[in-house]
Amino acid sequence: FRSRPRATPGAAPCVACATWLGPGPPWVCGRRVAKMPPVIISEEVPYDPNTHDCEPLDLNKPLGGHLWWHSLYWTNFPPLSIFDQQVWAENPDHEVPASLRLLNSDAALAEQYITFGAAREDLCSSRSLPSSAMRLTVECMQYEGVRDTAWDFPLQAYIPRRDNHQPNDLQSRRFGDNGVLHLGLNAEEFSERVSPVEDLDACIHIADKAATENPTWGYFHAVMRIGGWPYRIRRLGTYEGCGLGGRRELETGLCYWDEAQLWDLLEGPVVGSGDTAEGRGNLRKGYKFWASLMELDWLGRKVDEKKLDDPEVPPQKGYVWFTVVDTVPVTVPSTGRKGVKIRLLEEGVVPAWMDLNFLQVFAGSLPLGYMNEMESEGPPEGGVRLYRTPSDDLADHQGRRKVVVKNTHSKLVFDEPMTLQINDFVDLGWAIHDCCYKGATIRVGPTPGTWIGDVGEDEGTVAYKASGPPTLCHGEGPDKVVTCAPKSD
Hey, which residues does 324 pair with through a beta bridge? Predict the structure, then answer.
C-alpha cells in the first residue's frame, strides 16, 4: 500500500506553518491539524512470497507500474509526520491511523509503502524553513513530466493489445514524475552557505522492502541516503585501486539483481567463504567514488538527435562524488539492512529537489526554503519569479501565487500550481527546466514570493499546443454529456 496525496483545486494556505495544503478532512501536518487527506491504496498479491520468484521480464510480475515505480517502503525515507506513532496514539480514531492499522498485518506499518510525492508533501508541510534567504548555484537539473493527451473513453480497457502486453500503467519500467524538479547544487557554495557537505549524513544501501515480500517482486534499487532522503543509484564507479588508467563501474538494473556486486565494489572482493567486511574491515575505506543518480541522469536533450550519444549537457555535471568512510556497524538504523557510510565531496553536486506544488527546495531532507527566483545566463538569458497577488477573499492574507517564466523571446505566466490542470502543471515544470537547465542561480527564502499587484499575461513568441484530442461527448443541447475533455485550461 502507499499513501499518495495529490494536488486538488481549492487548495488553501496553512496559516500556522505558511505552507500550502489541499482541501479535505483534517490530518496532522507536524505543527497543527492540517487539511491533507492522503489517498490510501491497497494491493493484494495472490502469490506465496517464499515460492513465487519472478523473472525480470515476467509480464505478470506483481507490484509493477507507475505508482510502484514512484514508491518505496516507508523505512527508506526520513521520519515523516504522517507515520508518527505518538500522533497515532493521540488520534486513534482519525481516518489515517485507523485505515493503516486495519490494512497492515501488525496494526502499524509492516507492509506500508509511500510514494515520493507523498513524502515530499509531508516534509513540505511539517519541516521548518530557514529564517534567512540565500543564493545557490544550480549546476544542472532534470524534469520528467509527461502530458496526459490520451483519449479516456468508455470500454477502452477491453481493447486488445499487441502480444498481450501489460497495460502501460502496469509495466515494469521507468516512469516520469510530474511533481518534482531535481537540482544539482554546487557543493562548494553549499558548504559555505548552508552546511559543510562532509557533515551531511549519507550512506548507501539496498532499498528496504516489506518482510512479507519476495525480493524479485516489483523494483530493486540501490539508494544513496542524504539526510535520510533516498536517491536511486543508476551507476557508480571508481578510478582508485584499479591500476594505471583502470576503472571499475557498476550499472544497476530496475528489477532484481545480485547485491553482492555492489558490496564487491564498495568494500572490496570476497576472497573466501568466511570473508566479510565486518571481519576484515572495508578494503575500500578512503577510496573516491562517483555516482550517477536516476534523479540526475538526463540533464538535457541531444545536440544532434541522429546520434546515439550527443548530450547538450555532459552527464558528468550531475555526478555525486564521495569517499567511503566504512561499512555501517551492524546495520543501517532505519532499515535494519547492511550499508556503507560515505562522505560527500565538494568536487561533485549536492542532489536536491523542488516540489512543484509547494515550490519548496530540499537538499535531501534538509529544507532550504521557497524558490523565489531563478536566473539563467542561457543562452537565451532568462529567469523564473514567484509572486503573490492579492486574493478576492479579504480573509486570505497569503494571497494567490503566480509563477512567471521569462527569457529574451517570451514570457509565460502560470497560475497557482495547486490549482493547475495536469497538462498546464507539466508545462510549468518544462518551462522552468527549459529556461534554466544549462545552469542557473536560485534564491530561496522563508516566504513564498514577493507581493505584486498584477503579473500581466503571456507575451512574445508563445505558441499554444493542443493538450489532447477534441472533447468527447454524446447527446446534444441540454442532454449533451461530456465524458472526456482536454486536461488544460
Answer: 342
Q: What is the tens place of the pLDDT at every residue in 109-150?
A: 889 999 999 999 999 999 999 999 999 999 999 999 998 887
Asked whether 237 and 290 are in contact (CB, 8 A), the reply is: yes
User: What whole-number distance in Å separates Cα of residue 70 and Cα of residue 117?
Assistant: 8
Summarised one tens digit per residue, pLDDT across range 369-398 is 999 999 998 788 999 999 999 887 777 778
Query: What is the overall mean pLDDT for the chain?
Result: 85
Residue 267 parent element (H or E): helix 260-267
Are 184 and 140 in contact by the 8 Å Cβ rule? The answer is yes
Please tell me the number of Cα atoms within 13 Å of 182 on its side-chain side: 25
Peptide bond into 379 cis (omega under 30): yes
| Three-state SS at 46 | coil
Per-residue pLDDT reduced to its tens digit, 313-341: 999 999 999 999 998 775 688 888 889 99
CA distance 158 to 155: 6
Largest CA distance in the chain: 80
Q: Is 116 helix (H, G, I), strand (E, B) or coil?
A: helix
Three cell numbers, residue 287: 577510496
* Torsion from C-alpha of 374, 351, 118, 83, nearest 10 degrees: -130
- pLDDT, one tens digit per residue, over 11-35 is 333 322 322 233 333 344 333 333 4
Number of alpha carbons in the 13 Å side-chain half-sphere of residue 311:
13
Alpha carbons 320 and 476: distance in angstroms, whole number? 59
| Short-list 427, 199, 225, 254, CA closest to 332 | 225
Helix (H) or strand (E) holding 224: strand 222-226
**Angstrom distances, CA of residue 240 to CA of 102, 269, 289, 349:** 51, 14, 8, 20
Q: What is the pTM of this model?
A: 0.88
- State how far the Cα of 109 lies from the Cα of 147, in Å rounded to an integer: 34
Measured CA to CA, the distance from residue 240 to residue 433 in angstroms comes to: 35
Q: 158 in helix, strand or coil?
A: helix
Contact 372, 383 (CB under 8 A): no
Q: Residue 400: count other Cβ atoms within 10 Å of its Cβ.
A: 17
Strand order in the sheet with 2-3: 40-41, 2-3, 113-115, 71-73
